[in-house]
Amino acid sequence: MSRILLVEDEVVIRTELRRLLVRHGHDVIEAGSVEDASADHDLRAFDLVLADVRLPGAPGTALVGQCGGAPVVLMTSYATVKAAVDAVKRGAADYLSKPFDHAELVALLDHHLPGARPAPSALPDVAPGASVPAPSAPPVPPTSEDDELEGMVGGSAVMREVFARVRKVAPSEATLLVLGESGTGKETLARAVHRLSPRRQLAFVPVHCAAIPEGQIEGELFGYERGAVPGAISARAGLCEAAEGGTLLLDEVAELPPKVQARLLRFLQTGEVRRVGATRARRVDVRLIAATRRDLVAMVRDGSFMSDLYFRLRVLEIRLPPLRERPGDAVRLAESLLRRRAWAMGRAPLTLTPEARAAIAAAPWPGNIRELENAVHRAMVLADASEIGLELLGLDAPPQPPSPAPLADAHEGEPPSDSLEGYFRRFVLEHQHELTETEIARRLGISRKALWERRQRLGIPRPRS
């Protein structure tokens, strides 16, 4: 049994993490701040320390070097990534960017606790003095298979091509552009490239460009000198410098304002960063990966994205297909998520009913992997049996193929039945009399506005009440 010190000031988060770690057989000691942890406990008595970076009083990074060689793993938001990366350079074992998956946290802690992969505590309650039955074999994280690569799942031909492309581009130093709809796993792919690259032992710094206010993103990326921006009471390095020697991911790069686009282009041309308000540039060695769901070619045409920057970013390119283009992978992914979450939650593996598998394959999943993950997670929380069916996933059984009709009776211009439009048409026509527009949109996983727009485009008027 490993002893873990958990330092987190948010009581709800701390309680949830403690329960997770206890389920996996760890002895967990809690503290709400670095000062409380130091005053109440011998920091050298733990096998691992898990701490938030942003705490009242001293930051979690202050624990690095005080724990007698025990690994220190830090939890960070985008605003504190720089501090976490600096702490790793000073000796912290690793860091996790919020929000993170429980399975990801458990796997990371197991990695830093060699030989201490405890079984989840799932023993039944017994009376005092009664014999305790031997525990069954604990669930283990699924091993990599032919259809998995560094957390990416897919056995379809198109995903095997993506896997081959990832392996080919990973050793390169060239800039990589990752394209794909929202929720297709662009950051997961970028992490896979980093883990397979010569830079794997150094920092991977993800930056979600759309999440940083426009007025702050220049300073966040490139740093600033004291007094150069409002509230800058001291100089601060940017995230480009934080990624020194490693990989920098600019997610949703299309959201960068023109001024920052120009600075990024200059950085790619020279390999140098000049902080806001500085007179000297600093040489920085990073591999840049950019990702976006937007059509950059169209943005270049309309002048909202710099053409020179586009060509600099697109030295290498990988496109991630949406789930609707690989329905078989949706089922594989759901089963992989079930295994991983069951392992992280310390419970027996769950399976999908045949009807659930068929519905997962047929669903359009407009939110892609993110939407599927949420559906699987919700189903696991609500499941009372070992199987997960349609109801828990919030899906309907896929419509049966219509009986063949004479060619003369076919609706002119109607999409083929196996297309996404055909599925949408059948679903709406079959349910519009018993479901509200809000319920139809929810089951399709789209907004009411998107439902209305598709009705107009496909010529499916709402029924009169």
UniProtKB/TrEMBL annotation:
Q: Which GO terms describe its molecular function?
A: ATP binding; DNA binding
- Keyword NADP in the entry? The reply is no
Show the ranges annotated as biased composition (Low complexity).
Answer: 124-134
Domain Sigma-54 factor interaction span(s) in chain numbering: 152-381
Per the database record, which ranges form the Response regulatory domain? 3-113
Keywords for this protein: ATP-binding, DNA-binding, Nucleotide-binding, Phosphoprotein, Transcription, Transcription regulation
Biological process terms from the Gene Ontology for this record are: phosphorelay signal transduction system; regulation of DNA-templated transcription
Please give the Gene3D superfamilies that the UniProt record associates with this protein: 1.10.8.60, 3.40.50.2300, P-loop containing nucleotide triphosphate hydrolases
- Residues bearing PTM 4-aspartylphosphate: 52
Region (Disordered) residue ranges read 119-149, 394-416
Q: Name one Pfam family in it.
A: Sigma54_activat
Keyword Phosphoprotein in annotation: yes
Q: Which SMART domains match?
A: AAA, REC
Q: What is this protein called?
A: Sigma-54 dependent transcriptional regulator/response regulator
